[in-house]
Amino acid sequence: MSKRKNSIEINKAVFRKMGYELIDTISDFLDTISEQPVTTSKSPKELQNLLGDLSLPKQGVPADQLLASTSKLLFDNSLFNGHSKFFGFITSSAAPIGALADLLAASVNPNVGGQILSPMATEIEKQTIKWLAEFIGVSPSYGGVLVSGGNMANFTAFLAARTAKAPKNIKENGLSNNSKQLISYCSKSTHTWIDKAAILFGHGSNSIRWIETDSSNKMNINSLEQTIKEDLEQGHQPFIVVGTAGDVSTGIVDNLEAIATICKTHDLWFHIDGAYGIPAAIIPELKELFKGVEDADSIALDPHKWLYSPLEAGCTLVKNPKHLIDTYSSHPEYYNFSLTEEGGSLNYFEYGLQNSRGFRALKVWLALQQIGSEGYVKLIKEDIELSKYFAELAKNHLELESITQNLSITTLRYIPEHLELKGEKRTEYLNTLNESLVNTLQAGGELFLSNAIVEEQYCMRACIVNFRTTKKDIEESVDIIVKEGRKIHLALKKS
Ligand SMILES: *Cc1c(COP(=O)(O)O)cnc(C)c1O
Question: Which tens digits make up the pLDDT trace of 165-187?
């Protein structure tokens, strides 16, 4: 067959050679990932110099040269969240099968916006979503869509909730013609996505009721109920309550069952933000903690967090997927046909904000099979046990204080021995010391953790969603923290 001559195709022999070389490099990288510094010590300026400031190349460069130099550039100058001592934010180590899945997905390149464009990929995404529902213990009849991450998963659900609960003519007339203000409820420790949602989708940030938390840091249910009643008396229209299943700073799970009851009483949409924590619902011993999940109208979860998928993969699950189609399809009258007709098509562009969509389901689907539900139970349990171990070591160390431990998040502080300061001075000093410690540790590259503010105390925060972390990593991390803490204390004393 004659082929069009062009600069983009790579001939088979070259492609194979490049591919094998890249895979060799990646295998070495993954094999030794924890022997490197967690992150580069170079400044943005140094990185810019390294990258160079050339303008857009006019002439092409052979592909094999590019790939070799680029992998070096990245492997030498990145932060590795797959490092066994990476505990920052909520970013997991990535299942290696995900890297190969992305290569395969990009090679087939299905557009999973429409079934006709992605015959098997659409079926795989559908199965992935069914398995994710099963994973967290809700009915497999929940439907949904994969999105880029937790923010998008929550946005997708927020808009579906609005369509379901707002007056029907809102689609034609918009929010501004709605006489009642639509009100959202969530606890004070809810992630910033809800602020973005309220602002971007035209509700305004004043439409959010940040419900206070009780002493265990869960949403105070009495305040929730009281606030809803007050809003109703004022003539507002409550429409959604967000329960958090694993809050970002300390891993608290709200009392989901109690929130579900209130939502039923007042006919409100019950959404769970489980971006981080909800995969832990698969652990038999934690069933009680997650009670009420099965009552949620929608759930956000992030395979790129505790399911160890490479970025990006989020998921919105909705109890009755018709609400997604009502929201995102321009001709929702067809949905009965699409969903019930055997072999009828399922077009994911009608389930969310995206039109053309990549095949992000593949990496999630493959990992679910490679690991299996029992494998995940073991991995997640071990992460939690390691986090508890971290807290225990902190508790037993003279110069450390364990502050909180929930799911796989531990917060702790460094407290120098014989610190004589009292009251406010002491709080202030410890906040300065611990903040400086977090910054020093992050720059140092020996381990990576982030911070949390717990009751006005600046804490170090370690979140373990990392299948490479071992007990030894935790022990060594404690030593590193104390060693650096002492140095900073000495330096602060002198200054
Ligand atoms: C991480 C997280 C988010 C945001 O998710 P992204 O994937 O970063 O967009 C929202 N809510 C919670 C509870 C999270 O843990």
Answer: 999 888 888 988 778 999 999 99
Task: Evaluate: CB of 186 within 6 angstroms of ligand 1.
Answer: no
pLDDT, residue 178, reads 79
CATH number of this structure's domain 110-358: 3.40.640.10
Per-residue exposure over 432-459, b if at least 16 CB sit within 10 Å of its own CB, e if not = ebbbbbbeebbeebbbbbbbbebeeebb
> Containing H/E element for 243?
strand 237-244
Common-topology check for domains 110-358 and 377-494: no
Q: How far, in Å, CA of 412 to CA of 343, rounded?
A: 54
For the chain, first and last CA: distance in Å?
76
* Amino acid identity at 432: T
pTM: 0.96
Ligand 1 centre from 301 Cα, in Å? 8
Q: Residue 274's closest CA among 347, 193, 206, 213?
A: 193
Task: Report CA 124 to chain centroid distance, whole Å.
Answer: 22
pLDDT of residue 344: 66
What secondary structure letter does DSSP report for 182?
E
Residue 46, φ and ψ in degrees, nearest 5: -65, -35
What does each C-alpha distance from 51 to 41, 61, 80, 94, 403 come to in angstroms? 15, 16, 19, 26, 42
With a 6 Å cutoff on the Cβ, whether 102 touches ligand 1 is no
- Cβ neighbours of residue 214 closer than 8 Å, sequence gap 6 or more: 220
User: What are the extents of the domains in the chain?
Assistant: 12-80, 110-358, 377-494
Ligand 1 contact via 158 beta carbon (within 6 Å): no
Please tell me if the CB atom of residue 193 comes closer than 6 angstroms to any atom of ligand 1.
yes
* Residue 51, H or E segment: helix 44-51
Each residue's pLDDT tens digit, 250-288:
999 999 999 999 999 999 999 999 999 999 999 999 999
Q: Which of 219, 302, 408 to mutate to test the pocket of ligand 1 (most atoms within 8 A of CB)?
A: 302
Separation in Å, CA 157 to CA 132, 269, 327, 350: 16, 10, 10, 14
List the one residue out of 311, 350, 357, 303 whose CA is nearest residue 331. Answer: 350
Q: How far apart are CA 285 and CA 281, in angstroms?
A: 9
The structure tokens listed for 20 are 């094998």
Fold category of 377-494 in CATH: Aspartate Aminotransferase, domain 1 (3.90.1150)
pLDDT, tens digit, 9 for 90 and up, residues 143-160? 999 999 999 999 999 999
